[in-house]
Amino acid sequence: MTEQTRVTAARGRRLRCRGWRQEGLLRMLENVLEVGERPEDLVVYAARAKAARDWESFAALVEALRALRDDETLVVQSGKPIGIFPSPADAPLVLMACGNIVGRYATQENFDDLAARGLTMFGGLTAGDWQYIGFQGVLQGVYEVLQAVAREHFAGSLAGRLVLTSGLGGMGSAQPLAITMAGASGLVVEVDEKKCARALDRGHVDLATDDLGEALAAVEVGSAGPSRVVALVGNAAAVYAELAQSGLVPDVVTDLTAAHDALFGYCPLGLSLSEWGRLRDEDPEEAARRARESMAVEVEAMLRLRAAGAIVFEDGNNLRVQAGAAGFSGAFEIDGFAERYLRPLFCRGIGPFRWVALSGEESDLHELDRLAGALAVRPEVQQWLDLARRNVPLQGLPARSCWLGHGERSAFALEVNGLVSSGRLAAPVLFTRDHFDSGGMTHPHIGTEGMADGSSAISDWPILDALLLSASGADLVAVHGGGAGYAGYMQSAGVTIVADGTEAAARRLGRALDADTGLGVLRYADAGYEVARAAAATAGLGLQTASRPLA
Ligand code: NAD
After folding, report:
1. Which residues partner with 74 through β-bridges?
2. Is the pLDDT of residue 117 over 60?
3. What is this structure's pTM?
4. CATH 3.30.470.20 is held by the domain 21-134+336-541
5. CA of 167 to the centre of ligand 1 (A)
6. Nearest atom of ligand 1 to the alpha carbon of 236
């Protein structure tokens, strides 16, 4: 890595920009690279989700953010800053569109070609709009799914159960901790031995080995002993197939390799990492074809394990689509995690909300966690905060991911804005969320699979969400398209708002956070979900709000 690429987020109270709103966004641009997987290539996570188009764009973004006034809006096209326009002081500071290609042309081939020519980039969900906070971002998602699995299939507890999964990359590296937090044992297959060693160094797994027998002995299959998690160096397709053959049936089976990206995200069977790299360079089509074929082998093994009694689901990485593309017709017999386990939460606007202490001070994060716990009405929130405080190490700027719902997010953020104003915190706080949220995403094979009214592929919702967030004055609003590996499959919206302690920030936070979750609840209500209809009625969401008396 060169000098230029060694990016870390600024800490402390010194401003390099004209205000905290701009400074907060700049610190997040730096932070996603500080905690990212391959910062030297600007890659944050998900195989090739980037923070900026190229290093020239990165430098231009930094310069633009430093100079940006409150009454201006910076426009960013797929990771490259394009222009600065005058705007009202309460309008967004940054507007982004990333990886969008019109429907008929949104193919993987077109995306790869346009990206290679430097015209677009894949921003993932939270990379291109600087909202990624490290593996914690997906940690609670994985944990919530495991909890739902426990409730539905294992009388509320995964103690003594074995979870088989794979992938220890940017997001995947959250899995060992989530498995431990859920009280289960885990076998996590990862083809890159360095990622296994990293998980061991971090203390997230008890053992890293390339010996399946040793791994299985270590997780003490069948016993109700303490939870143990093992990183197994190997190829998921090979290991899953071997387990399916052996007759040993894990209780829960899933996968979090970067399967969505057949070229860069999934190592084909029988290849070492260096052989895979060479094949990608020499014959990318063959590399992708072999990866898809291997995914089909893995999915077939997952179905055999399911037939033998395992609970099997896809964890939001498009594995089933890739296996289907390889001609394996049964892939969609496997459940998608969102439809099966998370939808009731999304119906109430509950999803992956996040806060970041811009000061860099851990004491600010403690104070924020304490306040979130004190305000929580649902016991799960306090329970999660306790678990997170005990188990989640700091990664980059101190941050917390915490699933909050409609009304809960704005109530908390307004209190925090008050704390900033009174000087109780060392610096302002930034709020954001994953795009994988109730209003923020359309992906017919992930977040919006199997919508009750058939609206799974309708991407009006994230676009409306982004427009509404802009109208509400959020500080950064982004519309992301599928891009690498998700081309043609996804549309999503991202949002960031800084609580700088001002009254203007309070207005922005209240309006934008409620609009975001409110639209999410209405979307599910519109699709016919009773839970969402009840939540909308309780919160007074819908057309009736238009007839409210003028304030
Ligand atoms: P990443 O590219 O950082 O890591 C992928 C890992 O998979 C790498 O460590 C790689 O070595 C490993 N791998 C590749 N092929 C393998 C094989 N055949 N066997 C075993 N290991 C293999 O990606 P990431 O950031 O960890 O993301 C993983 C997936 O999760 C992506 O598809 C991403 O889009 C998806 N995702 C899911 C959620 C969610 O809520 N569930 C959220 C965000 C992202």
Report:
1. 84, 94
2. yes
3. 0.93
4. no
5. 5
6. 19
